[in-house]
Structures are given as C-alpha cells and as structure tokens.
Queue: 2 jobs
Job 1
Amino acid sequence: MPANKKLLMLPGDGIGPEVMNQVRRVIDWMDKARHVSFDIDEDLVGGAAYDAHGTSLTDETLADAMGVDAVLLGAVGGPKWDNVERDKRPEAGLLALRKERELFANLRPATVFPALAEASSLKTELVAGLDMLIIRELTGGVYFGQPRGIEDIGGGEKRAIDTQVYTSSEIDRICRLAFDMARKRDNRVMSVEKANVMETGVLWREVATAAHADGYDDVELSHMYADNCAMQLVRAPKQFDVIVPDNLFGDILSDCAAMLTGSLGMLPSASLGAPDESGRRKAMYEPVHGTAPDIAGQDKANPLAMILSYAMCLRYSFDMEEGAEMVEAAAKTVLDNGLRTGDIMQPGMTLVSCQQMGEAVTVELDKLAG
Ligand code: IPM
Ligand code: MG
C-alpha cells in the first residue's frame, strides 16, 4: 500500500463539477464501508481557475498536484474562454498538469458494456464484447513541440507553425509500457504512426521494433498507419488489443474508440508517469469526454466515465484491484438494470439524471458489499 493516500480533485468546467460530485458520493461510500479513506483536497482548474485567478492553473495548485499520487480531473474548457490567450486558456492548465508531472502514458480503455452494445452507432455485432486499450503518448509530439506560433509574413499573409517532435527515449518508454500492459491482456500491440509521410513516424516504427526485440518477443507487435487505424476502428474494432499512438493521433483515435462504446460519457482514462524508486507512479484520472457546455448545470451528464476513472485510480495508484472491480461491477449492474442518462438513452430504458445515476451506483455497491 502506498503511504500517500492523498487525492486532489480538480472538477474544472462545464459538467466537470457535476460528474465529480458523483465520484465524491462513491468515495464517501467507500469511506463509510471502510474500504479506504482518502485525504481529499479540492481546487480550481481550467476556466474556473481563470475566472478566479486569471490563469488556468495557479502555481499553488500545480505544487499541490506535484505532492499527491493521484489527481482526479473532471474536464476543462468551453466557449466562454475561446478568446483567452493560449497560455492562460483552460486547456493550458490541463496540459501543464500532464507535462509538469511527466504523465507520459495515457491509458484509454474502450470496453463495451453488454447492456450498451446497441447504443453504439456501429452494428451491435461489430462492437459486442469489444475490449481494447489505447495507450496514448501524452507529453510529447505536436502538443509541446517548439517552435510554434503564428507570424506575420507580410502582404497580409500569416504563417502558423506547429512542430511534431519525438526523441527515441520518449518513444521507447511508451512502447515498453504498452508491451507490459499487453502482457496482462491479449498480448498484442499495434504501434500506430505515419511512417509513410512523417519523420517522427519513421523513428516511432524503428524504436518500437527495437524495444520489442529487447525482451518482449512473447508480445505480438504489428504496425499500422494512423489513417488506416481510424478506418479499421470503425470497420472491425475487435481486431485490436492494445494500440500505441503518439499524442495527436492518440487524441483522435481515442475519441473514435470511445464512441464505439455507445457514448463518450462512458470512457475513463488514467495518465501515468514513470515509477519512482518505490514503484509508485504519479497519476491523473479523467474521463475522456469534455465539458459538454450544452448540458452543463442541468444534471443531465453521464457520471459513469468519471466514476470509472476513479476505479482506475484505485487500481493503478492504490493497488486496490478489488475495489476497482467493485465499482466497475456496480456501474455494469446499473446499466443492466436499464438506467440511462440522456447520452445513452434507448427505447424502453429508464432516463435518469446525473445525480440519480451516481446514487444508483452506490445502491449497487451496497448490494455488492452485502
Ligand atoms: C483530451 C482532450 C485534450 C487533449 C484537450 C482538452 C486539450 O481532447 O484529453 O483528449 O487534446 O488532449
Ligand atoms: Mg481529446
């Protein structure tokens, strides 16, 4: 058991606070049932922090985040801050939390709950039983590469520059983590890049191949171009076990994979750093969905991705596999019982609010705890 049982909650913007409240309910339940108690701090991030402090992540909040093993984050951003300068925008706070804490690996599992197979926009038989894991590189690539900017080049013309850059060690560590994770699953890794047009893609393939040859020959490694991967995800998603893409391709492919499961509102994620001497990794847990400004404040959001992110937190930060499985089982049962938030609503099911969904999860936890 890690010594540090501290959690920092950063609800953020839009539906972030609403879904975080439902995680709070689950955490309180676990506390009462004496499964685990956390020392919890809560703070602002994103647009909420910008409104209060003029920056989307204050130095104090970042320092607090550096001092805890696990951060739970809701979501950041919204049209309200569209015109804020880039380095103060809500997204900048999130990117700084990832970068400063060196959370280089973003695990985004896409699993289809049996009760939701029909909610997918793809045919049920294509997605039923789907269980894949995208391991997105999170602290490199075009998200952070320099130089970047927009410059005037005269004659009314402007030029925008982003830089896609990767070092071999950045690629090596994410690929090795993907191989390690694959061993606990179906043992197959698909490395994704565009080696046909990009230098970073050439290096990605070369380093993935070398890392694989260095102690992972029991794992099956294949390579695929990112555009083909997007196509295969909607054509035959069950062919994949673990996919390891760079930051930008991972952003895009994980939204696509999320939607296969019926709704973006279902997908959790874990962002992990390298293990320290005692084997602990800094981590942040957040749903893949965004702030959904159109339904914010209306108690309509689906809290399950946030609640499932908390399950990942129990698993990866606190080694509480049993607790994680309990939360996941409770979420599954609630869906089996026909409860649905608007995003996954289907004929004949029972439409519930964000709060009712959270409450239903704790009711199932009660039953599981017997
Ligand atoms: C995600 C989001 C973020 C990203 C945004 C909010 C900066 O889309 O976590 O997938 O692009 O990484
Ligand atoms: Mg995204």
Job 2
Amino acid sequence: MSDELALHGVSAAPGVTVGRAVVLDRIGTYPAVTVSLTERVEEAARARRALEAAASELERIAEELRLERRGDEADIVETGVLMAMDPELISRVDTLITDLGLRAPDALLEAAEQTAAELARLENAMLAQRADDVRSVGRRAAACAAGASQSVTEGILVAATLGPADVAQLARKASGIALAGGGVTAHAAIVARSLGLPMVVSLGAGVLEIEDGEEVVVDGDRGIVVRRPGAERVSVARGDAERRRVARETAVARRLVPAQTKDGHRIRVLANASTTAELHEATQQGAEGVGLLRSELLFLEASAWPSLQQQVDVLRPVLSRLGGRTATVRLFDFGGDKTPPFLRGVRARGIDLLLESSEALRTQLVAIVEAGAGTELRILVPMVTTSGQLKSVREMLSTILGGRSAELGAMIETPEAALGAAEIASHADFLSIGTNDLTQLVLSLDREQSRTAPVTDIRVLRLIDATMRAARAARIPVDVCGEAASDPRAMPILVGLGVDELSVAAARVGQVRQWVREIDFSTVRKESEKLLHQAGQAGGECV
Ligand code: PEP
Ligand code: MG
C-alpha cells in the first residue's frame, strides 16, 4: 500500500514537478541562546550589519533584474531594500538584543515577524501579503548574520513564505515551490507563474516538517504537495516536468512559426500580461502582443483612484516593449476579489463603477492613450452589460484621442452581454470573451471553481456561439481571454466556433500556438457545430 502523505494547500502556479526539497525555514532553526550582557552591543552591531548586507544583496538582485530588462520585478525587489533599512525594524532588532539578549539571527527573525504581524492585522489581503515580504527580508538578514548566504542549486523550495526577491534569485534553478503561508496574488506567486514554476501556497506549518533532501511532488494543478510519493506519482510528475521543459524549449525555438491550423487558418495568440516579467516570457514564446492587461492588478493596494502619473509609470514599462504590436489594456475591473482598500464596501464593479466615477475613468483613458503611444492600442471595457456603457466610454475617449487612434472593445463575460451581443457589437471594434466570469455567472459557481468549470457546458457554449454570430454580423474580431483559451479541451471548440484570437497566460503562449498548429480548422468547425446541434436536439445541458 502506498505510504503517500498529501498536504493540501492552494494552487498558485500550475504544473506538476518532483524533486528534492530545499528547506529554507525550519521551526527552531536558531536555538534560543541568550547573549551575555557584555556581548550585546557587538551582537546588535552584527544584526545591523546583517540588515545592511541583506539590503545590498537585494540591490544587487534588482540590478541584475534590470539588466535582464525585468524592471518591474526589480522595483518589487527594491521595496525589500527599504524594508531592510526601516528604522522601526532596526530599533525592534536592537531592543530584542539589548533588552532580551536574543542572538542576532533570532532577533532579526523575531523583529521581522512582529512587523509582519502588524501588517497582517490591517485586515487587508494585499498588505497581509506584503507581510510575507518583510519576513523574507528578515530571513535573508538572519542568514547573513548566521554566516550563511541564501543560494540554492536545484530542487523544490520549501519555506514559510517567500518574498519576490527570493523567487527571482532562488527560483532560477528551482523546479517548484511549496509554502506554508502565502497567497495566490502575492508577488512571489506572480513571478512563479511568469516563470512557469509549479507553486502551492497556504500548506500550513506541516510543510516545514519536510526534511532537507526529501523527495516531494509539488502538484500546482491540484494545490497539493505529496511526501513519500509513490512510483506512479513520481513518474507522472517527471513526465509533466519534462513535457513542460521540452514544450518551453520548442515554443521558444518556434516563436517565429505562425500559429496556423493544418489547413491554413490563422489564429492570433496573444498574452494575458500585466508585468514586464510576463511580457518577456510571452514574447520569448512568440506572443503577437498583449490580449489582456488587467490594469486593476497593478493597483490592488491603492488608497485612492490612481493618479495619471502613477498609471503612466506602471503602464509605460510594459507597453513600450510592444513596439507596433497589439496592446489591449483593460479598464480597471475593480470589485469582487479585486477590491482595493479605498473601494471597500462599494457594491458596483467594472464599468458600472467607473461610470459612477467619471473623473477616474477620464484619467485612466488619458493614461492608457499616453502610455500606449506607438502600440496598436486597444482599450477593453470590463463587465459590460449594455451597449450604452460602451457608448459613454467612446464619447469620452474621442475627446481624449486628438489625432491618435485606439480601438474600443467590450468584454463579454456576463450572460446579459452575450444575450445583447448584437447591439454591443454594433458599438464595438472588437469583443473579448471572458470565460472565467461567464462560466461562473451562467452556472452559478464560485469564482475559484469556475476556473476549471466546463466551458463546454451547453449553456455557456450557446452564449459564446451567440456572441460569435453577433461579431460576424458586425464584422469585428473576437478574442477569448479567459482560462478556457488555454484549456486543451475547450480551445479547439472555441476555434471551431470561429474565434479569431486566443489570449493566454505568458507561460502557456507557446503551448497554445502549438495546439493551433496541430488542429484542422474544417474538422473542429464541424465538431463544434455538431456539439451545438446535438445538445440542442437532446435538450440536455452538458455536451
Ligand atoms: C474572465 O472573466 O474570463 C476574464 C478574463 O477576466 P478576469 O479573469 O480578470 O475576471
Ligand atoms: Mg472577468
């Protein structure tokens, strides 16, 4: 009988991998030795030097990231430098050593933990995740004070939490990440996803009992980490990791080969990318541009509507790398699980919320037009339910554009939008189907489930088909930017229904381009028609 032990967490980046654990945090790593009174001044100085060393390490990592043109990751890492130099943190460390006699590494970990706990108490999910960044700085400094440097060769990183600098530095050679804490929207998770590293978070303290060098499987698809994995699981994981490695190499090698079906039908494969790290990976894999830049993700911690300059500052580094390629920037889709502190308690979401705050909408349009200069710019409106919303945005946009041009598109991600697609399409330059929300809303699922829910449910397929017909009548292109665009079962059906573009996560671009090359358009078209027809006749709900 198998002796496997599965630890359950939350999937933060997909893929399955097997490897030897490299445990960065261990409960009680530093034995609680009390420093004698005479040595405390020197011990406190040692702790301060360790913080300075950690800050310099982070500066060096940021510099390397900039040289690799990964500017926004560099910016994130640099916030760690500020944290390491934070006077409050330094004074906490001092107190713990001089008053309580803690050793420098213990004091650094404890002071970071106290600061992190304060952030976590602010009851704001995003700030709570910055708490992880402080812990990461504390751990880095503690390692410096203990005379060890954080370097990893290969393996599965196991830690309580990881800051973005840890991921950027350590994950280059790592094959997967398992964290006791952490959240899926933490910066570390964003970096892991853009690097294509399987990652499971929120596993609880049990994950820190894993021994250094122990073989574990990280299953980022199911959100589990398996200790003592059986032979079959190991072989499946090896197969998956090898497939991803080969697929990425092939994707990069074939980035200039068009995404065209066997019978010559072209599909544009674009990337869902909001950061330069994601754009870098997407471009390497042959993305023809950005099909969805989720602008709200860049401001989830905002305490007010972002200013023009703040928006230009974060958009320009991404958009300026696109040259003349397509840049689809979605207007803020705040609300639901993407509510920044200043909007807490506000019910409206997406375009409704923006139309209620018309100055914020105007500022965002100006920022996008300015930052998107030189790209083939498209502005996408989230959570559309009526054509009137689109008309209002177009009116405002026309006063801003001057001589410049930008296309305006509607997200079709609500049943109302799909049912009213003909009217909406007559006011749009393109449509983009958001299968994540559409599936959730049509099938009454919760958002997390909807990411794996069957887009092939006939109730959803009918709405997609209605959208396609409306777009064809209006002679405008249709993109799919929800997760279904990179789902191996849904993707051929979507192509068969006639979608023109698929916009997928950066790490999936090459794989999706390859799938397009492997299908036959006339075959998938017939199969999609048959699915709709059969389900219609049977009156059933699932196909
Ligand atoms: C969608 O709903 O499918 C979509 C792409 O938007 P988001 O996932 O950002 O809600
Ligand atoms: Mg959506």
